[in-house]
Write a structure and sequence with these properties.
The structure holds two protein chains of two kinds. By secondary structure, chain A is an all-beta fold. Chain A has no helices and twelve strands. In chain A, 36% of the residues are buried. Chain B contains no helices and twelve strands. In chain B, the strands form three sheets. In chain B, strands 2, 5, 6, 7, 10, 11 and 12 form a seven-stranded mixed beta sheet that branches. Chain B has a three-stranded antiparallel beta sheet with strand order 3-9-8, with no helix packed on it. In chain B, a hairpin with a 2-residue loop joins β8 and β9. The model of chain B has no long low-confidence stretch (mean pLDDT 93). The chains are: A mainly beta, B mainly beta. The A-B interface holds A 1, 6, 9, 32, 34, 43-44, 46, 49, 51, 90, 92, 94, 99-107 and B 30-31, 33, 35, 40-45, 48, 50, 54, 56, 58-59, 90, 92, 94, 96-97, 99-100, 102, 104-105.
Chain lengths: 114, 111
């Protein structure tokens, strides 16, 4: 069965530091890939998505992610974080050949210290 | 604006009750999903549906069932609620090559 792994459960960093969150999935077929963010007390928001084409995807709020097919990875990056990036981040994978099953990783809580 | 609407924001039910959580989408999307979200566990897929009357088990279907009689409506049913089903329940819808659109969530407490 499809699984999505996020390597870090908690990340603490200071403002202006760079952020990289790992995401790996197990499915070998065609996938769509997503990163969502959930700010404290709020609903999930889409940060970025990959369907096809350029494997380097740019999203909102300065985030980007790189799809590396050979590594089954879709890591999220931001060069310089702000206090307002404190949130929980979720990677999600859509298996297009499995009824578009959408599976989420366990999430990474990011705390940015001012 | 696309919209996924869950019928209740907060619910309190007693152990053993049959509980219905309703979700309606106005996007004409084929795919609908029910997740539960628990601290430290992310979003876990309970059931999903890729067409009317079609349903597939997700990763944690035990104790739950679903119904999709119309394209726009996807219901989650807790056959006999238990305290370990206390959680935040999220409904989502997607189309072909779209991201998921989420409802506002239903926080269910089983006492």
């Amino acid at each position: 069965a499809q699984s999505v792994s996020q390597h870090n459960h908690h990340v603490i960093l200071s403002e202006a530091a760079s952020l990289e969150l790992g995401c790996n999935y197990s499915y070998g077929g065609t996938v769509n890939l997503f990163w969502y963010v959930q700010y404290p007390g709020q609903h999930l928001q889409l940060l970025l998505k990959y369907f096809s084409g350029d494997p380097l995807v740019k999203g909102i709020k300065g985030f980007e992610a790189e799809f590396i097919k050979s590594k089954f990875s879709f890591n999220l990056r931001k060069p310089s974080v702000q206090w307002s990036d404190t949130a929980e981040y979720f990677c999600a994978v859509n298996e297009r050949a499995a009824g578009n099953k959408l599976t989420f990783g366990g999430g990474t809580r990011v705390l940015v210290k001012p | 604006d696309v919209k996924v609407t869950q019928s209740s924001r907060y619910l309190v039910k007693r152990t053993g009750e049959k509980v219905f959580l309703e979700c309606v989408q106005d996007m004409d999307h084929e795919n609908m999903f029910w997740y539960r979200q628990d601290p430290g566990l992310g979003l876990r897929l309970i059931y999903f549906s890729y067409d009317v009357k079609m349903k597939e088990k997700g990763d944690i279907p035990e104790g739950y069932s679903v119904s999709r009689e119309k394209k726009e409506r996807f219901s989650l049913i807790l056959e006999s609620a238990s305290t370990n089903q206390t959680s935040m329940y999220l409904c989502a819808g997607t189309g072909v090559d779209t991201e998921a659109f989420f409802g506002q969530g239903t926080r269910l407490t089983v006492v």
